[in-house]
Amino acid sequence: MADRHILVVDDERQSADLLKLVLESSDAERTIEVAYDGVQAVDKARAQRPDVVIMDLEMPRMDGEDAASLIAEVYARNPPLLIALSGNVLRLSALEGRGPFQHRLRKPVDFDRLMALVE
């Protein structure tokens, strides 16, 4: 989809930056922003509503679940697509059926599956 605004959030800077490059290379019409913790993610999402937020769960200052909940609250009438990423499978499975995320993906991320979600 053209003109999609995607926010990638991960405290592992290399992971966030690599994911940004992958997303940009697949579609030049996308705007990709990066935040490196939950506080930055909420600030960036408030400044410009993202269509998709790809959020790591375990981060300093504010974890991904709290940040995603705040973003969903800010845009309660029309929340962005919220995708959780984590290497912690127990944490991901604990989110099944609850929380702000529509999708939960395990790290290392399956890029084909992720790309299908953001299309």
Q: Let me know the average pLDDT.
A: 93
The radius of gyration over CA amounts to: 13 Å
CA(first)-CA(last) distance: 6 Å
Instruction: Count all strands and give the number.
Output: 5
Series of H and E elements:
EHEHEHEHEH
Largest sheet: 5 strands, parallel
Number of helices: 5
Report low-confidence residues grouped into runs of 5 or more. none
What is the share of helical residues? 40-55%
Placed side by side, the strands forming the largest sheet appear as: 2-1-3-4-5
Helix/strand class: alpha/beta
Strand fraction band? 15-25%
- Envelope shape: globular
Describe the structure.
With 119 residues, the chain is of the alpha/beta class. It is built from five helices and five strands, in the order βαβαβαβαβα. Strands 2-1-3-4-5 form a five-stranded parallel sheet, with helices on both faces. Strand 4, helix 4 (89-94) and strand 5 (103-106) form a beta-alpha-beta unit. Helix 2 packs parallel to helix 3 (64-74). The termini are close together.
